[in-house]
């Protein structure tokens, strides 16, 4: 990349950060500002987890734990050491970000080193366990607020820093993929045995990716702590880890743009659903089950039912009608279950159901994620709509 | 037996190399020597322990006993990536390409171990990393030319036909800058034309690029035609060693192959 392009990207990034800062902070109500801030943090979380899970092919399912380490570390330090006269707040925030990143990276190293040396998915279990350990540790430490909040964290809200971090995170991953170094990360994902036979230090690559990804989560945590001024262990529950994981899987493991888009969509979608009136538990279960059934049957039909058009259309219609009837019947049946009929789901709770359902449907329809390993580019879009060209030499 | 090639330095030396998997001795006290520039064959019936031998040499397994030395230094028990750095590269019997990467990217991964630029410079896209990547790409293109794959450089390796995948594995191994290359059944699944082509490629690797080649192959015509010395394994034991003519007429070998025309 030559100098003008590099300068241009810097300028564009700076302009974007400045724009989002002045526009949002100047003219939006506080709750919308917060949504933009949180969306930026989720972009960081999804892209950094994508580095671990998508690009390097590991399976970390406790990303929120590193988010939490960064948040509590920076928050606690800030409560006791922040001096408004000492330096400009944004500079302090940058220092806290670095502190959070270092703390989370260190945690990542401690967690990753033993589990990443081994083959297989030990990392999944270990990261999950680590999340629980951190949660229990915080809950039992009065200094950190225990089960209640760690509050009175100095309020330093900076949208440009949040989105700046998101851009840095995206840029770092993209740079990696553009260089030979990144190829060795992808190689580890594709085949560990072959990678090591080609001289790749597999453990080192995995640990690097894990430490780097954890570090970004930690930096995001530091920003969150100073935005919210009060954090609780619930802010970083296992749900959050699963949401981040869903974003990565949905976007297509390995695709940076996929992670970014999925993070934005999955973050904002539930926000719109807040306005949806409460749904009873029985309706929710009935709708979910019938939708999944419809998709599953439809998928089988499309793949295997090769009949004349008319018969296929009838089959499709029958599927839809059938699932609808199933939904109605289930709804009536579940209404008999008292606990389900009484439970009501709104906003936040609905969000998890939607995540789960989306994931199931996605795994049925497109197990490789929406973007698969691809990056979003117009060329790619054009190719999607073109008939696949025969690969050169595919016949020999 | 006179030691052919003894005027050249010894590259690889197995001394009583043995590995046991539970009760099964997959490789039992196997000894042979490769000299610089050898074109050496390793043959034997299915399950004889040939691939396991490769796995011992490349560090996938640690020998239960015995010694493996590369250029005079013991390498038994070193991890595969270290052994690769020392100069031993291999291909796999059950092709193990990086499926989602293009052909040229596969080869670039092979070349990456000689890449001095740091991770930090890659993450920040410093000129050093960019130039290194460009250099590796250039080198990879050259290697693809050797194995006649330059026209599919950008095709995802998973989508390549079998014969091309096998040749791509050779290019990827070459990219490591190895001195000794181990080929595990490189001709398996190839048609006669591709095999003929492959013979030329392997010869070229030895003659033009001065690599030492150790290859496993079931196609006797291919091995006899190509290799100058051959070691025969059966049930993990070495039953014969020598030039192709001697192997062809060795009664033990004929018996091991159950009278198949050797
Ligand atoms: N990791 C392992 N654990 C247990 N047994 C193994 C292992 N690897 C190989 N073996 C056994 O060692 C023996 C030799 O296997 P190897 O793959 O070396 O045979 P081969 O000579 O390459 O045969 P082929 O011609 O079929 O490739 C076989 O009986 C195999 O089952
Ligand atoms: Mg074998």
List keywords for this structure.
A: 396 residues, mainly alpha, 2 domains, 2 strands, 74% helix, disordered C terminus, B: 262 residues, alpha/beta, Rossmann fold, six-stranded mixed sheet, four-stranded antiparallel sheet, globular, binds adenosine-5'-triphosphate, binds magnesium ion
Task: Explain what this protein looks like in three dimensions.
The complex is a heterodimer of chains A (396) and B (262). Chain A is mostly helical and 396 residues long. Chain A has two domains: 3-268, ABC transporter involved in vitamin B12 uptake, BtuC, CATH 1.10.3470; 279-370 and 378-386, no CATH class. Helix content of chain A is 74%, strand content 1%. Chain A is built from 16 helices and two strands. Chain A has helices spanning 3-27, 30-55, 63-81, 89-116, 122-139, 159-178, 180-190, 192-197, 202-228, 238-251, 256-273, 281-304, 309-335, 338-342, 347-365, 378-385, and strands at residues 279-280, 344-345. Chain A has a two-stranded antiparallel ribbon with strand order 1-2. The longest helix of chain A has 28 residues, at 89-116. Chain A is globular and about 75 Å long. Chain B has helices at residues 50-57, 80-86, 103-111, 119-123, 127-146, 162-175, 192-207, 220-226, 244-248, 251-256; strands spanning 10-21, 24-35, 39-43, 65-70, 73-74, 88-90, 180-184, 212-216, 229-234, 237-242. The two termini of chain B are 21 Å apart. The mean pLDDT of chain B is 92. Chain B folds into two domains: 1-87 and 178-262, P-loop containing nucleotide triphosphate hydrolases (Rossmann fold, 3-Layer(aba) Sandwich), CATH 3.40.50.300; 98-176, no CATH class. With 262 residues, chain B is α/β, with parallel strands linked by helices. Helices cover 37% and strands 24% of the residues of chain B. Chain B is globular and about 60 Å long. The structure holds adenosine-5'-triphosphate and magnesium ion. Magnesium ion is lined by residues 50-51, 93 of chain B.
